[in-house]
């Protein structure tokens, strides 16, 4: 049962990673540039890293973004997965199906202003929580769409078998359905997190004065020049994440089992 | 797509409970935090701009008439064109990558996915700046190409549609990879092995088996790339040198610069209507990938 | 500084989040009215030294919630959608004062609560968008011009025509500003029209001029044009005076010139929101900004000019020498045409023209 690894696919993947990481490499190199401008190199320096550590506002903004993205991802994954199941199994109307997807396709300025007017009308105070609410609106749709791709041709007879064996719907969901759609849920969670963490327009309009997120801070730096401090942030994100991946790979190294038997396919 | 007759009656009875649980929370959120706010905003399209911005409540259709001006139709067309090219390119880049990841051993799959999406956890703005450095005539890419003798003169890679398209592909690539991966991973190797047993070549397998079965993922990915491409303002501004305008830019300008909410709402409607049609197509595609229930497709 | 007065249920901020108790030490001679209250401000990021805010907090016992906005349009959008609420003090450019006023969001300034307002230059009290400063107080001002590399451009540029009919060595190496108001300016000034025109014919002509100029440009650029000058990617750009200094700071061979046809006079101002429940603190803050020593630190930090003679006199001569646009006098500035709001139809015409040019 050979797993096909055509050379073409490998080369393509390599090229893709090159495409994705070339700008990142540039950013990391420039994070050590003593000149503030990206267009000239003035020598090696750690000043931006030092500045980053001392910049309370920037660190607070990063923290805010992580908090928001965390909550948004959690809520979106739950709502989105439920929606996916509901849409696939209980909704027959194409119109309703399409309508529910609208938040993902609407121009963000419309959602931003619409929600701010709405919050204002209800005298909601703005803060990180309103950003979370706003981000979930579209993020749950992305999760739903991705999870749904797993539901096509899904073999529900397994669920029926579980029911016949006496499992209640919740147990069936947790032990049968969820594991089967898990890659979709994970992919959806990754997308939801990513979309939230770098989202500017909706966050700006629906944030309170002190709930400044990372993109808001970065975009506001445009006026006076985005300094390499942000590059330093990017470099650190890269390093931390890559280390985490390496550790995860280490920990999951099969002991004596072949990778083929670790469950390929659902 | 035959509906199974016998179970239907039984199914309808017990479908309401699950329906509320599954659809309830999401739909409630959708109603309160999407339909109402956005609905109100879209309703403004039937009114007029106030003297300093804001809305005057005098019904009118003049904003809709204005939207048909060749200028805006032209911008919409350009946006759709560029977004389509970006989407197609993205698909071509993403599909083989998703294949690779889906076929990798299970402990590598999530790490590979994270590696694909990792660059997007850094600010898009600075990554765009990095592309400006890479693409400009004195930048790295041109230097390398000239260095190895492929070209004599620097290529115009920046401040044009090429740069905008590249920027858009770069911006949304993971949004194409992930849904396709999710859809592919479901398949496992059984289908392609079965095809191989029937003497199909890898390419044929791809064409006739794998791709059709992953259509939901492909469609989702295409929407995820196409839609935000229409609305991106950073890429046309920085990589395009402000010389390309996408409809998303224009809508934002109407709301913020011209403070003409009614007209902005009309332009937004045009995008929404367009997308509604696209979503209807997506829904149709998904309808054809019914789940297997009681021994036959539901 | 007797801001002791009147009114004011000085009871914390409107909204905008949690109610932090103020860190109230300091404030020995300050009236206790505003101590312990919150002042919510929105300004551009890095447009004020952090020390200014901190010192104000220490001196008055007011807690400052400092929000940031990227552009005028963003904060206007936010205020319009929130019906003018959410902030006590907002920094916006001149024409937007008129808009805020028209929308009823700008409070009438009680000048008696801002003693230092007399420090403002006379010219700064006669600005076309708000004569008499009834609804705003100027913060910084300046003009727009041509910023260029003296080593790459042999002759000093002296006309806006430089973008329209360029010298051979600048062709393809120029940028213009992309924001509507400044996008059409070189054309209007070159053609002899007002920078605030709402005449469709004049706007059309300016649009045609600009579309012709577009052929000669490298790009439209609002944010990275000075970096392009430093790297040599561009040799001549349309720039705000203060921004040109950021380029000069990295590359001394950069200079700034106001073309012969003249230019605009832009002003960034402070507006107190009508919805504010802590106007006293807002006035106190404005008063604080107008102090010479505070203004001096702002000028030296932002490299922008303040319309305050004592402030400009206090700025260290070395800074002025390094950044000559700081020496542009109020008289010279006042010769330029101040930007005002374009009105409903004007705004729509301009935005449409800008869209056409860039499409």
| Rg value of chain B | 24 Å
The poorly predicted ranges of chain B are: 1-13
- Helix-strand pattern of chain B: HEEHHHHHHHHHHHHEE
SSE run of chain C: EHEHEHEHEHHHEHEHEEHHHHHEH
Beta fraction of chain B: under 5%
CATH top-level class of the largest domain in chain C = Alpha Beta
What helical percentage do the residues of chain C reach?
A: 25-40%
**Structural class based on helices, strands and sheet pairing of chain B:** mainly alpha
Counted beta strands of chain C: 10
Number of domains of chain B: 1
Could you explain the architecture of this structure?
- Chain A is mainly alpha-helical and 266 residues long.
- Chain A is built from 11 helices and no strands.
- Chain A has 2 domains: 7-47, no CATH class; 57-225, MetI-like fold.
- The radius of gyration of chain A is 23 Å and the shape is globular.
- In chain B, 73% of the residues lie in helices and 3% in strands.
- Chain B has 298 residues and is mostly helical.
- Chain B has one domain (67-297): MetI-like fold (Orthogonal Bundle), CATH 1.10.3720.10.
- The longest helix of chain C is centred in the C-terminal third of the chain and has 16 residues, at 343-358.
- In chain C, 37% of the residues lie in helices and 16% in strands.
- The termini of chain C are far apart.
- Chains in contact: A-B, A-C, B-C.
- The interface between A and C is medium-sized, with 31 and 35 residues.
Gist of the model:
Chain B has 298 residues and is an all-alpha fold.
Topology record:
The complex is a heterotrimer of chains A (266), B (298) and C (359).
Chain A: H1 7-30, H2 47-54, H3 56-90, H4 94-100, H5 108-121, H6 128-151, H7 157-164, H8 169-197, H9 201-205, H10 214-220, H11 229-251
Chain B: H1 5-43, E1 48-49, E2 55-56, H2 62-67, H3 70-103, H4 106-117, H5 124-135, H6 140-147, H7 161-187, H8 190-197, H9 202-213, H10 215-231, H11 234-238, H12 247-256, H13 261-287, E3 292-293, E4 296-297
Antiparallel strand pairs in B: 1-2, 3-4
Helix pairs in contact in B: 3-7, 3-10, 7-10, 8-9, 10-12, 10-13, 12-13
Chain C: E1 38-44, H1 50-60, E2 63-69, H2 72-81, E3 89-93, H3 94-102, E4 137-149, H4 161-164, E5 174-176, H5 180-183, H6 185-191, H7 200-214, E6 217-220, H8 225-231, E7 236-240, H9 241-250, E8 254-257, E9 264-272, H10 279-289, H11 292-302, H12 309-314, H13 317-322, H14 330-335, E10 337-338, H15 343-358
Parallel strand pairs in C: 1-2, 1-3, 5-6, 5-7, 9-10
Antiparallel strand pairs in C: 3-9, 4-7, 4-8, 4-9
Helix pairs in contact in C: 6-7, 7-15, 8-9
